[in-house]
Amino acid sequence: MNFVIIGAGSAGVRAAETLRDADPAAVITLVSGEPGEPYSRMAIPYILSGAIDEDGARQRRSHHHFEALRVRYLNRVATRVHAGPTGGQVDLDDGTRLDYDRLLVATGSSPVLPPIPGTDLPGVVTCWTLDDARRIAARLAPGVRVVMLGAGFVAGVCMKPLVASGARLSVVAGRSGQILRSMMTPAGSRMLQRWLESRGVEVITTGRTQGIEPGPCLVMDQRRIAADLIILATGVSSNVSFLEGTGAEIRSGVVIDEHMRTTVPCVYAAGDVAQGRDFSTGEWVVHALQPTATEHGRVAALNMAGEDLPYRGSLSMNVLDTVGLISHTFGLWQGLPDGEATEVADDAHFLYTRLCFDADRLIGAITIGHPHHVGAIRGLIQSRRHLGAWKDRLMQDPQMVMEAFVDLNQA
Ligand SMILES: Cc1cc2nc3c(=O)[nH]c(=O)nc-3n(C[C@H](O)[C@H](O)[C@H](O)COP(=O)(O)OP(=O)(O)OC[C@H]3O[C@@H](n4cnc5c(N)ncnc54)[C@H](O)[C@@H]3O)c2cc1C
Question: How far is the CA of 185 from the centre of ligand 1 (A)?
């Protein structure tokens, strides 16, 4: 078999390793659109804080990892896929062409720039690649003025190293008026916002951003913010342009089935680029999380190698360290329209717990400041355990979740 993997992030790397395990004789080619060895985007905040250097961001320690696995590793951009009924070809940006029997698309996503003038000015960067991390790190110093446009997950994970560097940080939340809206209730967001403000971060939740002027200077309708650095964290879109003309169905990501097959014969997709199955709902969504990407890569590879392995779905779970305050978001944290939910907040101590139920099963949760509850909550959701009498007790006191977990396990 001749396997080609486009994309050397978590999904692509795990797929290459799994394919080699499954098929010792196969020809495997792993194509990375970026220079250097495969690295983990998750490491970027740790590079910014100086906790690790670039070497520590590499996905595999050995410089000879892929050579030892007999995986051909190419630093090239795929520009086009020619798909046929039993295989096809991939065009690369150096004019060469790779034949494949099975192709894995694991190209992740790229930042979407906001539709305002000035995003290409000096001092304006995204926070997505190792190269972005280098550019940000080069400017960080005590007193430096940093404006972050966007207040989602990626902005959230990057705030800690920015604050730790001594930079003066302003975060512009955009029109939603709420930080971390995709993973927090309004009450949870307000708590995290208060925490950020108590750590000296300015959080701007009103006003419209009109553009960026040289300086750079962020121009809003009611104020201007002069900065040394403006970081754009305003969302991402899937890297799929090279699939044009293949007939691959694309929605919020590449549409796949339970065996990670796209709508094109012999072409599979995995990771952030793919709409994989969600554990909680059974629906097909982009999770944009590293554990999901890794598991996608493994399952896709086994199916490409001829196994029949349906993907059971990944639990959406975000862990966030917002400048020292740890929060977790699990599964269906918004709750069901006709389901029950309970929440308890201790504003003075920045503690918050929300649990959501489907009848007597726990299906979603948010915690702020309670890292010790994580294993219990995850266990109860993933096991789809009937809580019985514990359901009402948890509705009254969600903090009892650890006791419920232990008691149910012992029973
Ligand atoms: C700053 C930051 C912090 C994060 N922190 C966390 C975290 O704490 N926890 C968590 O779960 N997730 C985190 N994530 C998200 C996580 O990094 C992604 O979910 C994960 O990287 C997805 O893996 P992937 O393999 O699908 O895609 P990616 O890691 O994005 O890899 C895609 C690969 O495809 C390549 N590529 C793209 N287009 C082409 C092309 N045309 N030709 C060839 N190659 C191409 C790219 O160069 C890259 O090698 C973070 C992301 C960022 C940016």
Answer: 26
Atom 47 (ligand 1): residue with closest C-alpha? 33
Residues 188 and 327: beta-carbon distance below 8 Å: yes
Mean pLDDT for 287-309 is 96
Amino acid present at 65: H
pLDDT digits (tens, 9 = 90+) for 322-332: 999 999 999 99
CB atoms within 10 A of CB 291: 12
According to DSSP, the β-strands at 351-358 and 361-368 are antiparallel
- Span from the CA of 404 to the centroid of ligand 1 (angstroms): 36
Element (DSSP H or E) covering residue 13: helix 10-22
Task: Kindly report the pTM of this predicted structure.
Answer: 0.95
Distance CA 200, CA 232 (A): 20
The identity of residue 34, as a single letter, is: E
Task: Compute CA distances 315 → 144, 219, 257, 295, whole Å.
Answer: 39, 39, 17, 11
Coil, strand or helix at 230: strand
Answer whether 44's CB lies under 8 Å from 133's CB: yes
Q: What is the pLDDT of residue 410?
A: 87
Q: Ligand 1 centroid vs 9 CA: distance in angstroms? A: 5
Please indicate whether residue 332, judged by its CB atom, sits closer than 6 Å to ligand 1.
no
Q: Are 254 and 286 in contact (CB under 8 A)?
A: no
Tell the residue nearest (CA) to atom 50 of ligand 1. Answer: 42
CA of 385 to the centre of ligand 1 (A): 33
> Is 221 a residue whose pLDDT tops 80?
yes
- Close Cβ partners of 77 (under 8 Å, ≥ 6 residues apart): 33, 92, 93
Counting ligand 1 atoms within 8 A of each CB, the residue from 93, 134, 272 with the most, and so the one to mutate, is: 272
In this prediction, residue 184 carries a pLDDT of 95
Q: Which of 110, 129, 113 is nearest to 121 (CA)?
A: 113
- Residues 331-378: pLDDT tens digits? 999 999 999 999 999 999 999 999 999 999 999 999 999 888 889 999
Query: 137-179: per-residue pLDDT in tens?
Result: 999 999 999 999 999 999 999 999 999 999 999 999 977 789 9
